[in-house]
Amino acid sequence: MANHRFAPPKAKEPGTGLRAPVGRRKFLGYLVAAPTLVVAAEFTRQTVFDGPSASAAPIPSVPQTPEAYDLLDLLRDASRPTANLIRIEVNKDGTVSFALPRSDNGQGIVTSTQMIIAEEMGLEVDQVHVTLADARPELLFNQITGGSSTTFTTYTPIRVAAALAQMRLLDAAAQVLQQDVRTLTARSGLITGAAGRVLSYGDLTEAAASPVNEQVEVVLKPREDFRIIGKPHNKTDARDIVTGKKCFATDLQIPDALPTVICRAPDLNGTPDDVENIDEVRNMPGVTDVEVVSTGVAVRAKTFGQAIDGVRALRVQWNDGTVHGESDETILAKLKAAELPLAVPAGVGETVEHSFTFYFKSNSSLETNSAIADVRSDSAEIWGAMKNPVTAQAAIAKKLGLPQSAVTVHVTQGGGSFGRKLFWDAALEAAEVSQTMGKPVKLMWTRADDSRQGRVHPMATSRIRASVTKDSVLSYEQRHTSVSTDFTHGLGDAITATGARAPLGNLTFAESIFELTQVTPYDYGVSTRLLNEVEMGFNTSSMRNVYSPDVATARELVTDQLAAKVGQDPYEFRRQFLRNDRMRAVLDAVAKEGRWGRSMKDGTAQGIGFHTEYKGVSAALVEIDTRPDTVNRKIREGVTGPRVTRVTFAVEIGLVINPRGLEAQIMGGINDAIALILSSSLHLTDGHFVEASWDNYFYTRQWNTPPEMNIIILDSPGDEPGGAGEFGLAATCGAIACAYARATGKVPEYFPINHKDPFPFEPKPLVPPIPESPTDGLRYTY
Amino acid sequence: MPTHTFTLNGEKVTVDVEDDVRLLWVIRDMLGVTGPKYGCGINVCKACTCHINGKAFNPCSVPVGAIDEKDEITTIEGLAKGDELHPMQQAWIDRDVPQCGYCQPGQIMAAVAKVRQCQREGRDVDDEAIEEIRNICRCGTYNRIREAIKAGADNM
């Protein structure tokens, strides 16, 4: 039933008459002049969540920024002025089309967007077509996919447009049927009149169309009437995926866009100086073009295999890279030197002080950086998975010497991102190569490129000093010091991206992101968190969050130490010091479901962690097994180590659109957390990263994943969605680190804990930069 | 240039290409069958897992010259019987396994082969058997993969 928002006759003021939506907030939508029904929407500020409740804990800390206004608010407010350009079209076949100005890399936002529109319009989910919009510079701030912000920022404007569309269709049906609009019902895209006559949205889209642009007030469906939102829904592209039909950038068949691979320097960001045998390589089988470009030497061939062979055959003289001669140790020394001082002197109460190091981590997704470019003399067309296509478009235009309007950027479905695709490295390179060769190219980074030269999560230290008396924490200071995180992607537009590139602009931006995202959720008296970042020439970006997993790991480990200091159980201590009941609810949920405190064998232990972000609260309880038989179990070319055997995770994050999708995101975050704490990092040696593939870089595998995982989604009174994509990590990282410390009796000082172990692999050569594909694959059939 | 003939998803195909080009690129770049994905090119990530004569293998590490005319190669595109999905594909949908989907064609082909192997050897499709599967899922949907393999196995 959709009659909650039946429109009054057009001449009347909305909200008058019998159908006045008592006490319901109204939003402004737009009818767009078109032959069929097209609607658009703009934002109206909504209440988000109640502020933090008063805390009963001993020494309340002053409110911290993210509790009142966080990164999600920033991303939404940045998108506010132009969000009215989001449009929904009603097609003649009764389906609805919407081009989502976001990038889906597996997080399920296409599915959740279909659900939102279907809910508001009285359609089935499969009647809504959602595609990813091309770069639309007129959207200014509103085309970035980051900070787990998509659903939070788009939920209301999409609903407004959808509600308006349905209102118009009902009005049109009332006119056609000559019946009072209040007697009509809408379901599955069909409007049924009093006498049982049925009209489809497709029948009505022309009649409902507006000849002029017009502003209209609309009310939204109340939550109690929801029949789709909040119910588990499978991903709508699942059938395409399991049959191999889902198309990623390198799967696209663009005429003459032949496979292209770049020969890269041994140093990170090294550049080509001279090529000794370019003509020889040009004559290799399948090779069509070899050209020097700014980042290396590009080889275009009939197949990727032949392009890789060409790269392997090149003999290139290289210029030094941006971190020539540097190593983990030299970078760590620079970070230590940049650590901001702790302000509270040691000696006030008892002091607990710890310093932790978090090594470089690769945010490589399974789909490597790749893009297709067809650059002509006066225009360019680009295809790639880009979370930030408007800024990419501007950068590409600048590189090519073309006006931005001459560059078309198509956003393709991405094979994972985790932050990597906030940047457009492959697209920019593909554009340059296509221009240099004068031909279309399908450019793909090899795995070795992606691992060694791709963006990384920066190395960081987190230093904490807390002072504690018998039963309270007087002060808590956390100083996070990081190799600078590249935020030059801005907020998805040229203006903030330019600002971030200005001198000190990136640090200001980084400090803002830190301030807008980091909360110490415990009442630890005088509590401060400060960030300093040092630019050192690395290619960085976020990786399923920027700071939180590291900041939380450090904070939760110290929290366990504080609990020990006052002789309290880690769960009871957290419970007492958490700032409000909403936080305590998720902590209690994992303690109960995960059976906190149950008897554990020697060498195994439980650990508990908490984190708040993205308008939500989360807690994790993990069990870890560090016994020698487990740690030393053998897997060919795999890292085993301690095994997380059980994870219980509770999350409360406002209105949940698709619980099944949220659970998937949390599950991925948990598996990421296992890798970050236990097994996966990059090692910087002599100006390059050692790791060149998945047999060097130990992301979680089946043999590392917990046999038992229980994800609990708590009901929320909130009527707006929070952010899900990155939320599974921080609490889990903290819990795993605490469990490991409790199982072994040693608080780790660096992460991942295996970072300083001898390499369980032979490093791959730097020259040639791509390892040869084996030829013995048929020996491993099963 | 050498000519290579084999059966791909039930159809005879012939390509003209050097012997040493790895089969993955022949399938993807020359024959336009893009279900098998590149993820490493060195037989580690397993994103390109296909079947050769019913067994799992990784075409990134097999030169096309090593393929015989009698060999039957099956990619994810050839797993279903027309519109009727293989039980493992159906289990993947039922359990809402995929996230980005990039690794999933390889995961499904590996799962089918692992179940067949267990059946041949009279083993249970349990956690231990599943942990022999090396395919990487960078989205981390491993736990749903486990559930789906067990469910799919029940219908195979």
Automatic annotation (TrEMBL), chain A:
Ranges where the Aldehyde oxidase/xanthine dehydrogenase a/b hammerhead domain occurs: 243-322
Record-linked SMART domains: Ald_Xan_dh_C
Source superkingdom: Bacteria
GO molecular function, one term: oxidoreductase activity
Bilayer-crossing regions: none
Pfam families: MoCoBD_1, MoCoBD_2
InterPro entries the UniProt entry points to: Ald_Oxase/Xan_DH_a/b (IPR000674), Ald_Oxase/Xan_DH_a/b_sf (IPR036856), AldOxase/xan_DH_MoCoBD1 (IPR008274), AldOxase/xan_DH_MoCoBD2 (IPR046867), AldOxase/xan_DH_Mopterin-bd_sf (IPR037165), N-heterocyclic_Hydroxylase (IPR052516), OxRdtase_Mopterin-bd_su_IorB (IPR012368)
SUPFAM superfamilies noted in UniProt: CO dehydrogenase molybdoprotein N-domain-like (SSF54665), Molybdenum cofactor-binding domain (SSF56003)
Protein name: Isoquinoline 1-oxidoreductase subunit beta
Naturally occurring in which organism (per UniProt): Pseudonocardia halophobica
Phylogenetic lineage: Bacteria, Bacillati, Actinomycetota, Actinomycetes, Pseudonocardiales
From TrEMBL, chain B:
GO function terms (MF aspect): 2 iron, 2 sulfur cluster binding; metal ion binding; oxidoreductase activity, acting on the aldehyde or oxo group of donors
Domain of life: Bacteria
2Fe-2S ferredoxin-type domain boundaries: 6-59
All copies of domain [2Fe-2S]-binding, residue ranges: 75-150
InterPro entries linked to this entry: 2Fe-2S-bd, 2Fe-2S-bd_dom_sf, 2Fe-2S_ferredoxin-like_sf, 2Fe-2S_ferredoxin-type, Aldehyde_Oxdr_Iron-Sulfur, Beta-grasp_dom_sf
Protein name: Isoquinoline 1-oxidoreductase subunit alpha
Protein source organism: Pseudonocardia halophobica
Source lineage: Bacteria, Bacillati, Actinomycetota, Actinomycetes, Pseudonocardiales
